[in-house]
Structures are given as structure tokens and as C-alpha cells.
Structure prediction request, 369 residues.
Amino acid sequence: MKKIFIVVENLRIGGYQRLTLDQAYALSKMGRNVTICKLNDCKQSDENLEIIEKALILKYKIRIVNVFGSRLNQFLLFKNLISSNNSEILFLVHTLRATVLLKLTKIIFRYKIIILTTIHQLPGLSHPQQRMRRYFYAQFADSLYFYSKAAILGWQNEINSNFVMKLIFKKKCRLLRNGVFVDRLEFSKIRIPPNQDYPVRMIFLGRIATWKGLETLFKLAQHPKLFHASILIIVPAIDKNFSKRMPIRLMNRIQIQTGTTINNFVPKPGDVHIYPTNFGKNIKYTESISINCLEMACLGVPSLVTKGGVKTWPELDKFKILIEADWQDFEECVELIIKNSKEYFSSDHMKSIQEIINIENQFQTINQF
Prediction:
């Protein structure tokens, strides 16, 4: 049986870091021996998933090893790690730097390893020079995966628009959608059907990045029809200037949680998750569905997401739990928030949603190749 190593840049609170742990939990549950290799440490304890999720890491017996230092030192550490294991090793890689280092060890020492690399960023969001390096590094993967259709389309469009790049970069692009380790969620927390109208609670999850649209949520919350809505903001951390960004008239309606994960979230009737991403006019292909959106869906909380970026998850469309919104049309967005705060999903629908999003589907996809 192949040993499985998952390689990640770090274990800070973030999308692909949480995905790394969910992969490890699911594989452990399936009876596989799993080790996570991290290239850098997380110095902030309140942002460190290794600390925050210690109980789950211990429960599923996930081994975590540090591969720190210079490129040469990391190369040697990977070599020693591989040589100390006699069996064939499968590497699930979430960093292109590690992809290159692992491929070099494979070529030089003829190790029996398989390198499956996943790209977690839309190509257009990186600087042109950095983008070119990413295209080059990606060629070192044995199989190359992308978290969304938008990422694949953006990647292929960039290559096909340049004759030289088209000749050089021929690695096949495959879709490997994100997922959620469903067992981490407490389904006793799923919001119950309300027998009366509950006040709206608008939820914002994730890092406070400009493109994630926190200001859009603040503007929506100041609409007269949402005057009584409360706001829950769950972020890894906030800086001393964060309070300056919040409108004074919203101060008494906002609750902020830092250094926590979805495990500490308790859904309530009236909840609506707001994810108003804006990648800019230069991004031709966009992705609107984050891991937070998927986690919310598993708990029965609808998400309002940016229009045009839901093509990766067509099976979820019939459940109307991911609702596309035009953030320029504030009146329509407000009505969508109010309408979806009253939605309730049956137990059968919830089970179907969770089956679609379950991260174990990733391994079925990988096994096909």
C-alpha cells in the first residue's frame, strides 16, 4: 500500500491549508497512513491550524513533519524522507516549489514516487513574471490538477494565446474540485426550520483581503431593509486599523471572531453567508465558490456569491443554496438576502448536498487517473 504525503506551504488558517487537513482526515478515516509536510512555520498561534485543530490531528493520527530551510536543505530533507520509506509514495502537493524539489529527487535518485500537484489560484491574479514561473514549475508534476474550471480556462487561455508557451507548456490540466471533510462538521448545529421570522444575520468568513469584498457587506448592511440585521465576521486575525474600516453606525451590530474555524460556528435561522468577490476587470474567468461556501452549504446556510463563477459546481444549482448576485444592484442583493434568510433545506436535500461536497470524492477522481 502506498504511503501518502501531503505537502503544503504552511498551516496557517486558509483555504488550501484547511483542504490539506481535510484530505489527511479523510484518508486516515479510509485507513491510509498520512503524513503532512510543511515548508514553513506559522508564527502566529491564533492563526495556526496545527494548534487550533490539534484534537482532530491527534484523533486521526496525522503525522506532521517540518521541511524547513533553504531550497537545498529542503531537497535533502525530502530525499531523506523518501529514502527512509521503502514503499512507493504518493505525494499530494499544494505548492509548486515542492513539486520541483520532489521531481528532482525522483529523477536524480530514481525514487518510486508519484507527484500530484493542485493549483489553487486563478492565473490572472499573479504577476506576469510569477505566472511564467508557475507555468514552468507546473511541468514537473506527474499529474496537474486545478481546483476550479475557471482556473483551468484561465491557465489554458494564457498558454494558447502565446505560440512559444503553447510549444513548451503541454501538461494536461485536470479538474480536482475542493471538498469538505464532512465528519468535521457537527450536524446537530444545522439550523432548524423556523416557526417564525428570525432577524437576518449576515456572515463574512475568511481573510480580510480587498478582493473578498468586506466593504460590500458593510454597504448592504446599511440598507434600510437590513437595518435590524446582525453581522458575524469570522477572520484569522485583525490589525489595529480594522476598526477604522467599519462604519460607526454598524458597530453595535457586528460580532467578530478571530483565530477560529468552522468548527466553532453555530448556524442560526436567518443566516446568510455573503461572499462578494471582485477579482477586477482584467480577470476573464472567475471562481465564486470558496471552501467557506461549501462548508456553509453542508450546514444548510445559503451563500450569496458573485455572478458568473459557479460553473465548477453545477450539481448544487438545483438546491439553490449558492445564489448568484450582481453586487452592483444593491436593491436586488438586499432582496436576495432577505429571501434566502428564510430558506430551509430538508434532511434529504442536506444529505445530497453533503454527498456532493464530501472531500472523499477527490480520491475517486484521482483514482481515475
The domain at 3-181+358-368 is CATH 3.40.50.2000 (Rossmann fold).
